[in-house]
C-alpha cells in the first residue's frame, strides 16, 4: 500500500481549513497515531500532523543558542578588518610601549606576517569543515557543537594572551578550525530539528548570526584604540563558547541522528520534545525513510509504506524496555498510539518483525563523498549534490569578499585615500544595512520559496556589479558606494542565506555528512582563493573586477532558474523522488495562452519559473 505525504511540495501555505482538514483525515488512514502529549490529554481529533507544526519556542531557543557559535565566525572575520593599527607594531617595541612584561600593548608584525595571520582563519576553517562530518557522525550534532566550543575557547585564549606574531597566528588558526566545524554542524543540527514549514526561517539564522558577528566585531575593534583592550575584543568569542558549553547539553539531540545510530527510544523522545502537541507518526516514518537501512537478515529496505507505518508504531508500542526507558528519561512526556487497521494481520506481523530487527541489529550505511557524487547510493543524488555545490561556490564568486573582507576592498579603495577614518565606518554601515534584508528574508523565505529569493538575489547582484563597474570606469564614487550598499543588501536576501540550509532539505541522512563536508570545504577553499585573487586582479585591471563577478552572478541566475528545485514545504523524500538521477532541467515547459486568449495561462507559467 503506497502512501502520499499530506503536505505536497510547492503548495501555497495559505490553504483553506477545509482542505487541510481533509488532508489530515486522509493521513489518519495512512499512519498510526503517535502523540507528543500527556496520556490524559489524548484526543485524536484535536491534533495535527507534526509536518504542519508551527512556531516553536523550544526550537527557536535552541537555534538561538546554536547561533552563538556562528556569531563567533563573523566576529573573528570582522575583528581584524579594522584593528591592524591597534594590534600591530611594525617597528621594534620601545621600553615605554609595554603595559607589562607579559602582555605588550602591541605585537611586532611585518606586513606579510599580518596577512598570514588574517588569512589563516580560512585555512583552519577548511580543515575544520573537512572533519566536521566525522565528528558529528561519531558523537552527535549537539555534542559536536559542545566539544567544538572547547576548541573555540582555546583559540580565543591563545589570541587574548598572545605575545608574539606566531602566538597570535596560532590562535587564529585554532579558532578557524572551530569556525569550520561550526559551518558544517550548525546547519545540519538546525535543519534536522526544525519543523517542515519553518525550515527556511530557522535556517536563515546562520547568515543573520554571521552579519551580527561582523557588525559588532568591527564596532568593538574600532573602539579598542589603545592599551590592551584589543585582547578582550579578540578573545570575546570565548564568552559565547562558555555559554554554549553550559546550556547546549540541556537541548535534545537531532532525532534523525539518533535514528542513524540506532538509538530508537532517544530519537522518539527527542522528536516528541520538539513537536509537543502534534501527531508525529508521519514525520517519524519520513525520518526512517531518509535512512539507508538494512540488517544482517537482508531485510528489504524498499518495503511498503504501511510496513514502515507499522514499524513506527511498533517501536514505541511493543518494546517494553524502550517504553520504560522513555518514562525514566522524562516523566512529563509520554506517548499513546491508536492503531488504525491499515494492514492485515500478516502484514502487521511482518512489520513487527521488521521493527524488532531494527531495534536489535540494524546496519545503517553511511555514504561517502565519492559514492554520493557518482550516484552510487540508494537514491541517485548527483543532481541535488550539484545544486548544493554550485550554490555554495556562488556565495564567494558573487564578489562579496571584494567588498568587505580584504584590506584592498572597494570600500577601502574609495574612501581611505580621502578619509582613513570613514572607511571602517562605511564597512560597519554596509553590514548594518544588510540586517533589514535578512529580517525580510526571514519573513519571506517560507512564503515565496527558495528559488524566488535566489533568483531575485542573483539578478539584483548582477545589476549592482554593472553599476559598480560603470562607477569605477566613469564615476562618480557616490554611485559606486550606493551600488555596494545595494549589492550587500540583495546578497543577504538569498545567495548569502539559502545555500547554508538547503543542503539539509535535499540530501537524506545517510549522505548528509558527506554533502555538508564537501560543500562547506568548498566554501572555505573559495574564500581562500578569492582573498588571494582579488588583490591580484585589482592590481592589474581594477575596473574589470566587478565585471568578472557580475558574469558569475548572471550565470548563476540561469543555473538556478533551470536546475535548482524548489524545496519549500517539501519533505526530503518527495524532493528525492522528483529530482534524483543525473543533472536535469527542473523548470516546467512554457505553456501557451489559454483558449480564450487571456493572459492568465502565461502568468501562471511565468510564476512556475520561481516555483517549479
- Silhouette: globular
Radius of gyration: 26 Å
Which structural category fits the helices and strands?
Answer: mainly alpha
Overall pLDDT metric: 74
Number of helices: 28
In short:
The chain has 28 helices and 6 strands. It is mainly alpha-helical and 612 residues long. The strands form 3 sheets. A two-stranded antiparallel ribbon has the order 1-5. Strands 2-3 form a two-stranded parallel ribbon.
Describe how the helices and strands are arranged.
Layout: H1 17-28, E1 33-34, H2 57-78, H3 84-87, E2 88-89, E3 107-108, H4 111-139, H5 141-160, H6 165-193, H7 199-203, H8 205-223, H9 229-235, H10 237-247, H11 255-260, H12 264-274, H13 281-289, E4 293-295, H14 305-318, H15 320-329, E5 337-338, H16 345-360, E6 362-364, H17 369-374, H18 382-397, H19 400-404, H20 410-415, H21 422-448, H22 450-474, H23 477-491, H24 498-506, H25 509-540, H26 545-563, H27 572-579, H28 600-607
Parallel strand pairs: 2-3
Antiparallel strand pairs: 1-5, 4-6
Helix pairs in contact: 2-6, 2-8, 2-10, 4-5, 4-6, 4-25, 5-6, 5-9, 5-10, 6-24, 6-25, 8-21, 12-15, 13-14, 14-16, 18-24, 18-25, 18-26, 21-22, 21-23, 22-23, 22-26
Protein described:
- With about 600 residues, the protein is an all-alpha fold.
- The chain is about 65% helix and about 0% strand.
- It contains 28 helices and 6 strands.
- The protein has helices at about 15-30, 55-80, 85, 110-140, 140-160, 165-195, 200-205, 205-225, 230-235, 235-245, 255-260, 265-275, 280-290, 305-320, 320-330, 345-360, 370-375, 380-395, 400-405, 410-415, 420-450, 450-475, 475-490, 500-505, 510-540, 545-565, 570-580, 600-605, and strands spanning about 35, 90, 105-110, 295, 335-340, 360-365.
- A two-stranded antiparallel sheet has the order 1-5. It has a two-stranded parallel sheet with strand order 2-3.
- Helix 2 (about 55-80) runs antiparallel to helix 6 and helix 22 runs antiparallel to helix 23.
- The protein is globular and about 60 Å long.
- Residues about 1-15, about 25-45, about 90-100, about 295-365 and about 590-605 have low confidence and may be disordered.
